[in-house]
Structures are given as structure tokens and as C-alpha cells.
Specification:
mainly beta, OB fold (Dihydrolipoamide Acetyltransferase, E2P), 5 strands, Cold_shock_domain, cytoplasm, CSP_DNA-bd, Cold shock protein (Beta-ribbon, CspA family), nucleic acid binding
Length: 65
């Protein structure tokens, strides 16, 4: 599992970005990767990374303890 902090998330559009702790890179996150949770800016999260059509995507996102 990767860890990071939500940079921003637009609930009405259903997407945002997570800053990865290990690399500092922005990882795209779509609402379908959230497993039914709600996230907001500055939330600490855990997730898996998959290769999407336009780059890396976060999936199986959950709030970190």
C-alpha cells in the first residue's frame, strides 16, 4: 500500500489528486477508486497505484490511521 495526502478533491466532478509520500508525485484519484468513503483536502490516505490511460491512478483508497 502507498500512502499520501489528498492535495484536492472535487466532489461534484468526482476526481482529485493525492501527493504520494514516497515520490512527491501527484496521483490522480477518481471517485470510483474510493470504496465508498469520502475524502477531502489534507486527509491522509492509503491506496494502490494502477496504470491508467493518462498516467497513474489511485485505487482502493482508504483513510490512513
Amino acid at each position: 500500500m502507498q500512502t499520501g495526502v489528498v492535495k484536492f478533491f472535487n466532489e461534484s466532478k468526482g476526481f482529485g489528486f493525492i501527493v504520494d509520500d514516497a515520490t512527491g508525485k501527484d496521483i490522480f484519484v477518481h471517485i470510483t477508486g474510493l470504496n465508498g468513503i469520502a475524502i477531502k483536502e489534507k486527509d491522509r490516505v492509503e491506496y494502490e497505484i494502477v496504470e491508467g490511460k493518462k498516467g497513474l491512478n489511485a485505487t482502493n483508497v482508504r483513510k490512513a490511521n
